[in-house]
Design goal:
Elements (H helix, E strand, L loop, with lengths): L3 H12 L8 H28 L4 H19 L2 H22 L7 H14 L1 H7 L18 H23 L13
């Protein structure tokens, strides 16, 4: 089961904000939301390619994950934060559970989960801000306000820079494919 088409549809929907406005803030807002969707897609693909899940639990996981991704595209800024945290957190949880089958995968899974916990702080803060901006109007998203974009950018930056640091650590190995029995 490959969720790639859902991500393509979400990115296409996010791109509709660029139909009427090519301003710097709109482009930046699209970029932040695109990278958010990309991070969820990337982690889902890494999980799928690494562990090759095929059972009913994982089919439910994919459905819930794709629902969270669609939420990034259609909700207000409050929903974007909730859906991103839920989608990324769910993948981290599934990776931690799957790393129980391969001891070599545990250090990396733990390091990435700790990194996600740290990088999620700006996303959590953005949930508690004034959420009257970014409402869907006339079938198109409005660009979220500058403070939400700054917090989301901070969270994504922490995560991406942290991943480069984790990959440099000699104690964190990259084991091969693990198949569920």
């Amino acid at each position: 089961m490959r969720p790639d088409l859902c991500f393509v549809a979400v990115c296409s929907y996010l791109g509709q904000t660029l139909e009427s406005d090519w301003g710097a803030r709109t482009l930046f807002g699209f970029g932040v939301l695109f990278v958010s969707v990309w991070r969820v897609w990337e982690n889902t693909n890494i999980y799928v390619n690494r562990f090759h899940p095929r059972d009913a639990v994982h089919k439910i996981y994919f459905f819930v994950e794709m629902t969270a991704v669609m939420g990034i595209a259609v909700f207000t800024v409050f929903g974007v934060s909730i859906c991103y945290l839920f989608g990324r957190g769910l993948t981290e949880l599934m990776t931690l559970m799957a790393s129980g089958f391969d001891k070599r995968a545990r250090p990396r899974a733990l390091a990435e989960s700790c990194l996600f916990a740290i990088s999620s702080v700006p996303w959590i803060v953005s949930i508690f801000l004034d959420n009257n901006t970014g409402v869907v109007s006339a079938g198109h998203r409005e660009t979220p306000d500058t403070l939400h974009l700054a917090l989301w950018t901070a969270g994504l930056s922490l995560e991406i820079v942290g991943l480069f640091v984790i990959r440099l650590l000699p104690l964190v190995s990259l084991p091969g494919t693990v198949r569920f029995s």
